[in-house]
Amino acid sequence: MSIRLKLGVTLATLAFAGAALAQTPAVKPTRIRGDIVSLNGDTLTVHRRSGDTVTVDVKSTVGVSAVKSIQLADIKPGSFIGTAATTGTDGKLTATEVVVFPESARGTGEGHYAWDLGPNSSMTNANVDTVVQGTSGRDLKLSYKGGNNVVTVPPNVPIVTFIPAARTDLTAGKKVFVVATPAAQGSFEAQRVVVEKDGVAPPM
Rg (Cα) of the chain, in Å, rounded? Predict the structure, then answer.
């Protein structure tokens, strides 16, 4: 990978992480998940999981990235991750997805807070202290400023890291995750776009 490409990945990851995963953003973002209908100029049309269709203004300066699958074994003590999880009746956290950040993005959005991926969903951006094999998966012992917790990662949970993508990847039928702010007449302005690539859809 060239220095220029590495820099692009780092900048895209940092920008995305800051917009999507920060605990206390200046403007509360809207997270749009769904399938791309079309991209006409700067207007991205997305059919959301909720069933409605929305338009998103994707300016040329907006970064586009994708994700690639990695293995649970790639998560080591010292890794900095973001994991969405659900809280069970026993109070334990079970991961629904895990994103492994590059070292350059360490500390981004650090903390434990509510997430909108599903009922009782939370997001934890934290350092992995230890990885322990449990009865239902691997238990990640995580620490972050102000706290710590344990998240169990079942074998079937998607685990990804960021890779570069481009506007040309924004084609009809692909899954997409967009962090956006509300705009006029029910439309949105994109801050960051993560698109399906090589068959790997953004799980966040």
Answer: 17
Q: Which of 61, 24, 52, 22 is nearest to 189 (CA)?
A: 61
Residue range 71-109, pLDDT digits in tens? 999 999 999 999 999 999 999 999 999 999 988 889 988
**Minimal CA–CA distance to 85: which of 152, 147, 132, 30?**
152
Strands (E), the chain: 30-40, 43-48, 53-57, 63-69, 80-87, 93-100, 111-114, 121-133, 138-144, 147-153, 159-164, 175-182, 188-195
Q: Please give the domain boundaries of the chain with CATH numbers for all domains.
A: 3-66+164-195 (2.40.50.140), 68-160 (no CATH)
* CA–CA separation, 34 and 163 (whole Å): 20
Q: How many CB atoms lie within 10 A of CB 2?
A: 7
